[in-house]
């Protein structure tokens, strides 16, 4: 039986087809509350879209531990083999708006919310293990170059490559972006990475640094540049459709979680040998130096019931780590620890953690009260904590760790020009097959043919420093497009 239509306050609606008017053809009356409520709600149906990762897809699932890592962490979700933890995963494109095509050349967001018995752990990363910049102060500038020109309101290769060509640190990620992996075949056939360096703390208080990896068990599949453009026109929601339909057919996608592990001393020795800062987000830890260790299996097996309530309003923050986990001196991570939560406060609301998709599955209690969407306001419970007059003794809980030593004087330190931003980009290039290299050359030549000569030459110079064959290949692809400067 169809339920009775009511107002938001539960009052039955007498007529949902005709507004109240002064006579058959007279003006409408303000007393028609049902009409007013519908129009008011309609005007407010869209919350601000995310500045980045605006268009996304999501699903529920579970994480199952397959290997014991308790020697590294006391986090209870890893406490025994076979343990299950409910998860919600959101995939996304990064630079486009909510109406953009799923197949655009772009990094892909890969964010996982683990509803653990000790609170929510958010592993918020991408389908690439590195990023374009190493200092968060440049993040707004970088994102603006990926958006729209303030005059033309068009995407601008000139802006993009003007930024990249002056930022050698971006070359590693630019190489990945314009390779075949820049246009993955949906979300099921790509890997995920925490990207940043995090830390784990065991029951004895011992700390190691880690990088998180999620390897697709469906196999890597990418779209050619031509197919990505074609599908963008015929089915701009291609990745959303593929994920939803696969889960609906019970073809549940799965990923294997692995970690790279290093002690603080191991990272110091590695940096002394390679010259690479292990906490630099534009770099990776080579697998030969830090092998991957299996942890568990992530499976997605339930579609959301309501896109807006769940996929659109889910709120992630890398600051959300549970006891047995911690952070690192990664500058980009340090910036994100603030920025993500702040973005959710603005975009979704003060009490966004109260929404079902964001709420912990374990009991939670704090002294925060009131504000918009105060779904759980704790009734008559106290909204303050008294001062411990005799001092406090930390209970050993929480998501902190013993920290790391700090050195030097406060200030703004610029390592550009002194750091190696080319070797790892060159290593990635040299790993590609001959056909993949040719695809990279052609993918880069397309936007570089649209930029000014100065920007193009700066970018070619970066390719040259990574590998002369890299620059030569892009030049040849440009010449086929009639660009000979």
TrEMBL record:
Occurrences of domain Catalase core (ranges):
6-393
The active site annotation covers 53, 126
Q: Catalysed reaction per UniProt?
A: 2 H2O2 = O2 + 2 H2O
Q: Which UniProt keywords apply?
A: Heme, Hydrogen peroxide, Iron, Metal-binding, Oxidoreductase, Peroxidase
Organism listed in the record = Undibacterium oligocarboniphilum
Tell me if Transmembrane helix is a UniProt keyword of this record.
no
* Requisite cofactors: heme
Entry-linked InterPro entries? Catalase, Catalase_3, Catalase_AS, Catalase_clade1/3, Catalase_core, Catalase_haem_BS, Catalase_immune_responsive, Catalase_sf
Q: What is the lineage of its organism?
A: Bacteria, Pseudomonadati, Pseudomonadota, Betaproteobacteria, Burkholderiales
What's the protein here called? Catalase
Listed PANTHER family: CATALASE
Q: Which SUPFAM superfamilies match?
A: Heme-dependent catalase-like
Q: State any GO CC term.
A: cytoplasm
Instruction: Tell me one GO biological process term.
Output: hydrogen peroxide catabolic process
Assigned EC number: 1.11.1.6
Q: Which Pfam families match?
A: Catalase, Catalase-rel
Cite the record's note on assembly: Homodimer.
Tell me which family the UniProt entry assigns to this protein: Belongs to the catalase family.
Main role? Decomposes hydrogen peroxide into water and oxygen; serves to protect cells from the toxic effects of hydrogen peroxide.
Instruction: Name the top EC class.
Output: oxidoreductase
Which residues does heme bind?
340
PROSITE patterns per the record?
CATALASE_1, CATALASE_2, CATALASE_3
Gene Ontology MF terms in the entry: catalase activity; heme binding; metal ion binding
């Amino acid at each position: 039986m169809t339920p009775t239509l009511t107002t938001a306050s539960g009052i039955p609606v007498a007529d949902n087809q005709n507004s109240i008017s002064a006579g058959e053809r007279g003006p409408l009356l303000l007393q028609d509350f049902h009409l007013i409520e519908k129009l008011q709600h309609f005007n407010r149906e869209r919350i601000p879209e995310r500045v980045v990762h605006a268009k996304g897809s999501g699903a529920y699932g579970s994480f199952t531990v397959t290997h014991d890592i308790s020697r590294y962490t006391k986090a209870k979700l890893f406490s025994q083999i076979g343990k299950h933890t409910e998860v919600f995963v959101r995939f996304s494109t990064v630079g486009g708006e909510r109406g953009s095509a799923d197949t655009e050349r772009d990094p892909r967001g890969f964010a996982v919310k683990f509803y653990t018995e000790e609170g929510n752990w958010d592993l918020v990363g991408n389908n690439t293990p590195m990023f374009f910049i190493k200092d968060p102060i440049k993040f707004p500038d970088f994102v603006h170059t990926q958006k729209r020109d303030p005059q033309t309101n068009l995407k601008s290769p000139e802006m993009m490559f003007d930024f990249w060509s002056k930022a050698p640190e971006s070359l590693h990620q630019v190489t990945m972006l314009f390779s075949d992996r820049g246009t993955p075949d949906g979300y099921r056939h790509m890997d995920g990475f925490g990207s940043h360096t995090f830390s784990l703390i065991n029951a004895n208080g011992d700390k190691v640094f880690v990088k998180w990896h999620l390897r697709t068990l469906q196999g890597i599949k990418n779209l050619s540049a031509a197919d990505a453009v074609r599908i963008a026109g015929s089915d701009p929601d291609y990745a959303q459709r593929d994920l939803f339909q696969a889960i609906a057919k019970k073809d549940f996608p799965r990923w294997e979680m692995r970690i790279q592990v290093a002690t603080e001393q191991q990272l110091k020795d590695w940096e002394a040998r390679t010259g690479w800062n292990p906490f630099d987000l534009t770099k990776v830890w080579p697998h030969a130096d830090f092998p991957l260790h299996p942890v568990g299996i992530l499976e997605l097996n339930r579609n959301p019931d309501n896109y807006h309530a769940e996929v659109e309003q889910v709120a992630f923050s890398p600051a959300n780590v549970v006891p047995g986990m911690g952070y690192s001196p990664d500058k980009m991570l340090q910036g994100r620890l603030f920025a993500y939560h702040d973005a959710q406060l603005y975009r979704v609301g003060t009490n966004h953690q109260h929404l079902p998709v964001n709420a912990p599955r374990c009991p939670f209690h704090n002294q925060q009260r009131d504000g918009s969407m105060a779904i759980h306001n704790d009734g008559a419970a106290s909204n303050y904590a008294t001062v411990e007059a005799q001092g406090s003794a930390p209970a050993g809980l929480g998501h902190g760790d013993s920290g790391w030593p700090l050195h030097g004087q406060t200030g703004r330190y610029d390592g550009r020009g002194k750091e190696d931003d080319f070797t790892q980009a060159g290593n990635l290039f040299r790993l590609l097959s001959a056909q993949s290299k040719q695809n990279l050359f052609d993918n880069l030549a397309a936007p570089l043919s649209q930029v000014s000569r100065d920007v193009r030459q700066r970018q070619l110079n970066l390719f040259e420093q990574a590998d002369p064959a890299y620059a030569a290949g892009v030049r040849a692809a440009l010449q086929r497009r009639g660009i000979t400067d």
